[in-house]
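Bit of a strange request maybe. I'm writing a small parser for structure token strings and I need a real example to test against, not something I typed by hand. Could someone generate the tokens for this chain?
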Amino acid sequence: MAKFMMIDENVRRRLFWLLQRISSYSLWQRKRNAWAQFAEKYEEALKTWSEEKTSGFDPKGIINIYDALRLYDEGLTDLATGNRQVWQRKTGAFHQLARPVDLVESFFWGPCHERWVHVEPYPDHVIPLDNLRFSAEYRGDDLLYPPQDNVCNIIDADYLLDSSRYNGVFHSWPYPVFPKNLPPVPDNIDVIIKTGDIVPCDGIWEPVKLRHSHKFLVIQTEVNGFNTRGAFNYFIRGMTAPLQHSDGFNVDAQWRLVWEDTRYCDGVIPDESEYFLNKAQGLRIQCRSGEKCPHSGQWATLAGGQQQFAYVWARSEMPEAKVFNGAYRNQKLIPAVWSLLDRDDGGSPFETNPGENH
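Reply from user aminoacidic:
Good idea to test on real output. This should exercise your parser:
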């Protein structure tokens, strides 16, 4: 069962903001800059490290790395003018860069891969480079490509709001820091399309069931509202409106335009610093494994060898952390100190007085 329900206004505002963030120029520019730093350090390693230290790298890695950087630059040039076809399958620069990026990841250090999957920890000298590679990733940055199977990319809000989804085997994505005051979600019903229709504009769409007024209690007249039927999705102009996955089935859906994305069409990149807020605002509320959780929300710990995330309900018992020991192995659990990242009630995750956790 989903933890984050779309009838909750706070959930709606957070998912709306996250989709705007993922599709922003600033986020993709940060991805590009992180990849450029990785490319520089990778090439430096090839030139200066001993043959023994570079023996496990893919011989074609540097080619794929710079091919991806080229596509980042091409895509950013287009996105800066409001052209969101950069995410179109096959033809868009950002969709094309997925291939060289995947090739770099799949063959990064062969001895630690099995069938192109990273299954064993890298040698110590390789890990910093892999961390640089991973810093170009943001959870959900692949949700902008039109769905390949004609089923919407986002089924429920948990995919982007549940912090436990940010846990990986060798890496964890940073959980986003939300602004204190999130804008309301528009409730207009001016543009409605259905599965199979061509999407008329870029933006955020919501599956809905329309409510109609009735004449003589029987005859439907004008639309007077809607009921949400699932999570927001980001669609680009010209794609086909997809099916919705609901209750285990793929079904036809009506999609309402929540927000049309016209950013950058005037050639201006606005201040988007709110998408990357500084986490260092004070001491975060903390709670230990086995203690009663003081606030429902997203929690994180560095115990066990890597950052881990968990969603915990208020008054439930704080969990233990997993000990990192590589992929596909039984994981040991240990006590941990958890820090509060984000509260469901909208309150501050930071201590008002040091030493207090409530």
